[in-house]
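are you around this afternoon, could really use another pair of eyes. what follows is a protein written twice so to speak, once as letters and once as structure tokens for the fold. i want to understand how the tokens follow from the sequence so walk me through it. anything you notice is useful, everything is just below.
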Amino acid sequence: MPTALPTERPIPAPGPVDTSPISLTPATGDDLDPIWKAVVPETRTRGNDIHLPISLAYAERLCDAFPGADRQLVRVAIQLHDTGWGRVDEERILAEGFSGDWRRAEIRYEHERQGCVIAREVLPPLGYDGAFVHEVCAIIDGHDTRKEAYSLEDALVRDADRLWRFDHAGIALASGWFRMDPAAYSDRLETEIIPELLTAPAVAMATATLDRSRALLRTAVIR
């Protein structure tokens, strides 16, 4: 069940904070494999087959830092949060979702709605009860468009959704979506996305990961 959201920003963590490369700690266990198998078609759009597993790994790290959070709710919500992109017009994704006032683009609301549809389709047959599915959908619906997080679990999903971008794989994909070179996109991550992070562990992970990615991609020179 959702945990009350602390008021301090960034939210300090009672647990350990791991800032090592995310490739060293992929998501653990096989309990979510049935969900992955149920949404394979939805992972083939907009790089979800890269974005979602990396975001899940970050979500598990954040749950380690916040052991009081509902870990299963966070894990399933991050796993499904962007599957809705697989059911919208792919041409509109880049045309509307990553240009202009992209945060308010209608297609972003639509992908949230479709993500909830998918969650309601796939989770009950796999044994997840109605109350759990409701909480998953409450996080998915608004994860891009709602201004504020409403619970700790919502905040962890939001941070995990952003953290993958700082990894070199995230930079490689997302810089193209925004029609930026890696150096310019890395600068945007520092000036725009880090200030959006809600938890102190996410800020630490983002900063360390961005430093490594910039060094790897030689963004100080190739710009």
